[in-house]
Amino acid sequence: MNKQIILCSHGRLCEGMLDTLKVFSLDQAMPIRAIPFYTEGVDSEAQLSQLADSITADQQVLIFTDIAYGSVHQQVMLQFGDWDNVTVITGMNLPLVLELAAIGQGWTKALIDAKIKAAQKAIVCADSFSFNLSEEDE
């Protein structure tokens, strides 16, 4: 399966996310790129247009945006909202992107939905955890 992931955000959040994915070598498994919006020197609209021109019918593409219904999400949806081989996921977070980037097979709707639910459950207030660290743990 020919897959790729696109990360889109207000500012450079998406570039930081991409940098972290590189720590886990997930950028070696498939193309992953970042498109920052509202960033000096970056023409995000041109990059979206180039992305649209480069996607082929045999590719499966996940596009992550940072804020649901935000301006970046709206621009991505205007460009790709009706594409059958492009799935837009909003509310991007590192555990979700890591999980989906690490999957070898194609992304089904059921798989994506399950990973989103798992990522939502992983967001917790750490104050509710009790744990003890010893000097040996540090």
TrEMBL record:
InterPro entries: Bacterial_PTS_sugar_comp (IPR051471), PTS_EIIA_man-typ (IPR004701), PTS_EIIA_man-typ_sf (IPR036662)
Pfam families the UniProt entry points to: EIIA-man
Presence of keyword Transferase: yes
Official protein name in the record: PTS EIIA type-4 domain-containing protein
GO MF annotation terms: transferase activity
Any Gene Ontology CC annotation: membrane
GO terms for biological process, alphabetical: phosphoenolpyruvate-dependent sugar phosphotransferase system
PTS EIIA type-4 domain residues: 2-123
Keywords linked to the UniProt accession: Transferase
Source organism, top-level taxon: Bacteria
